[in-house]
Amino acid sequence: MGTNDNDLAESLYDKTYTCPFCKSKIKSKEIRKGKTVFVELDLGLRGKYEPIMPDYYFAIVCSECGYAGVAKNFEKLSAIQIKNIKEKIHPNYKPKVFPPVYDANVAIERYKLALYFAEIKSADFSEKAYIAQKIGLIYGDIGNIEEEQKFLKYAYSWDSDAYIEEDFPIFGIEEPQFLYNLAYLAYRIDKKDEAKRHISKVMTNRDISATLKEKVEDFMEILKE
Fold it and tell me: Is the overall model pTM greater than 0.70, yes or no?
């Protein structure tokens, strides 16, 4: 028997944020501890959970002004980014009301708003890549391969730029895991030679953790096939 929205709603609570653009106190849904069951860690190091995926709730949208970002840096906006948003935001832009439970389509819509603001505020490549990868993977959850590929390609391109232009930790990620993710994205968009090049750099990194090393070994076996 499937889990209905009422059951899922009871697994959520309202977490308070301060919108960095309009300064309003807002609430966004987050999953209560103990309300999900871990299933597995996939090749891309994305945790799979039941009955609800935590990363469907990582995009935060201000209910007052409509500004959107991702939880890991939602409350951080520089003065120049605020200026960029004020200058570039569409004059008719209005905040949208979302349902209390986010399915894949709602999650995608919220992440797309975050990507819209990442673009107009001139966010780092890595921030845009993080959002695009979330969108692509969630499209994959619902079997939309065309859109999945489109956004994973965006993510790979932006992360490739981030690797050249930004300093570690890149969007909070240290080099071994960042390179692993770059290899994973390359693999997912059928750039296997590039995936092999990136994964080989992970193996030679002295700071690789035991858990990541195990995943790298599994990944290398897949790339040999």
Answer: yes
